[in-house]
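ok here's BON domain-containing protein:
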Amino acid sequence: MLYRHTVGDVMTEDVVTFRPDTPLPEVAALMDANDIVAAPVVDDDGAPVGVVSASDVLRHETGMPDPQGQDGDDERSWGKARARTAGALMSSPVFTARADWTIPRVARELRGRHVKQLPVVDDDGLLTGIVTRSDLLDVFIRSDAEIRDEVEQDVLGDILGLDEGAVAVEVRDGVVTLRGDVPEPRLVPVVVGLCQGIDGVAAVDARLAAVRAG
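and the structure:
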């Protein structure tokens, strides 16, 4: 069976967090020291209640609300501009992910929510990590050798049970080229579909012939 990466595989488990009463100078200092653009705000139990971003801090430093109006109504915008703690500045409610989510699912969630990261929570709603857009990219930046091995061993060998060497596999810049014979015509789209489902595969060029054993 092909292995599909999940959020748990790529998320960062050692997460910088703030409490609602964390002073903003401390928030700014920790974000700068750790070179992060956002961090969850958690309650006493460790459940995320909001997120503070670097843009929030920068807008606060100017003493002005969000010029694009994305913070909501004017009262809320000016309130965040006057904030003194992480709890007053954070964006809430917070959207979260689960460790067992697939990479496509969390990618759609990030895009749909227009955010660059999501806190990851367990069954009790407690923080276990954080996943970012850049984390997702790491899944697809795989070596051609890794992809070729997965095609040969998992797809052609374990799943389809083809004889070793029946299909030659070449991978260049994530493009998989298949040359050789398969027992039945119906297997050609099956091979292609399975290869396309491998993380890191950019395209599949199937140059396969169906040769029935006689």
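+1. The radius of gyration is 24 Å.
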